[in-house]
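Let's sit down with a protein and look at its sequence and fold side by side. Which protein we use is up to you, so please pick one and set it down. Label the sequence line and the structure token line clearly, so we can match residues to local backbone shapes. Go ahead whenever you are ready, and we will take it from there:

***
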Amino acid sequence: MASKLLNLVALSSLAIMACSFGATPTTALSLGHGQHMAARHATHNPIARKRDQSKRCKPRPSSSSAAPAPSTTSQAPEPASTSQAPATSQDQRPSSSSEAAPPAATSQSSGGGSSGGSTGGSSSGSTGGSSGRNPDIGNLGKSGHKIGAAWPNGNDPALANFVTDHLAALYSWDVHVPEDTEKLGMVAMYMLWGGAQDKIDSFEQNLPQDGTNRYILGFNEPNEEGQSNMDPYTAAKIWQEHIQPKADLGYRLATPAMSSRPNGKEWMSNFLKACDGCTFDAQAVHWYDISFEKFKAYLEEYHNQIGLPILVTEFADQNFNGGSQATMDEIWAFASQVIDWANNTPWIHAVFPFGMMRDMQGVNQLNSLMQADGQPTDLGRFFINNGNQ
């Protein structure tokens, strides 16, 4: 009996030891993906907070004043618009073009008509489509005149330091733009940043009633939780009520600007299908990553999906995906390739490099276009002079 009891004890001990060496459960976080995405979110968040702070000043009633900041948000199953400025998405803002999924199918046709040989998404059934109008104003969209200013500095007189014949347009992530924007020869682009009521009220109260030779930019990265954060169906209703009627005032209309998160293309496809009677003159997009080839492929995918002329309203040679940043030499090469390709691609109508500010707010400082004294950096001069020093 005693020997049987000893055998049972021995067998039990062996079973316990075997269990203790069993396989550890595997999760997405244990594979490092969550940590990778969270790091991107943490890096990009300061931009949102900083830009949001720029809105603490009361907006001026004229078409000028301090500009809020860029933004980005992830798709939410239920609308949760936020007035918070540029940021990142969920706890893990996915990467840009290199991770972008293939373009989602949309019932909007990709043919049709804008101008200058660019294809515009024509309306198919009840879906949103091209307005059929010339999306260009003045020199905007013409080769040699495709650099835009993403300007969060309000009426800072430093703006005059950046004006050249190649700088074609300006926006400020808000309904207010610097009062001298048009005097300095740039197309003024006003933005309805998101769906929060204070944003809508400010937009309706301060948007100039004459939209001739002006643009309205749609929501800032509504596919990102840290940005304007709206589902495409709510966004379509707000567009129909507050943006589409402005076409009758003469405004050109650019779509909401997606972040380069892979869900952006699906969000845009659903938005276009839901936006009954909506028309668009251009497609706005954002891109952050390293490598010109990724940048080019990402924009080609969008153009193939939507078919509208493209405004790249935010971009930088910036790694938010946890890897190393581009060197100065690589950034110079990237800038040169972007300018050359944009000038030779009819459907690229303007590119707005990120960095016309003194504080880069988490973006690689080597991308900076402005010095502390308000003068352009060498890279800034290169962009505003169309690739010439």
User: Anything to note?
Assistant: The longest strand covers residues 310-317. The chain is about 30% helix and 10% strand.
